[in-house]
Specification:
The chain is an alpha+beta fold. It is 22% helix and 24% strand.
């Protein structure tokens, strides 16, 4: 499988897709018959403190702005429990190959 192209944020910020870790897990709460059978929650992790793609100024801004979503190790953790989110992420990754 070929590597995905980097994520271009701005003219000066480009992040290698390998820096991101996506996992698909079962969502909590009500969800009908498939709630315990299908992975409906997406978790994205990105280690901001170890990212080679950021300047120190940008790194500090991200760490400050998103501190409530950071782990102690400096990982930014974002989640989505929307039903079609996994399908959308898969479609995006297939179209950017």
């Amino acid at each position: 499988m070929a590597a995905l192209p980097p994520l271009v944020v701005t003219d000066q910020i480009t992040i290698a897709r390998a820096e991101f870790r996506l996992t698909f897990v079962r969502s909590s709460g009500p969800g009908g018959q498939n709630v315990n059978k299908t992975s409906t929650k997406v978790v994205l992790r990105w280690n901001v403190t170890e990212s080679e793609s950021l300047s120190e100024a940008v790194r500090r801004r991200i760490l400050d702005r998103y501190r409530s979503r950071m782990t102690e190790r400096g990982e930014l953790v974002l989640t989505s429990e929307r039903n079609l989110q996994r399908l959308s992420l898969i479609n995006i990754s297939e179209h950017t190959r």
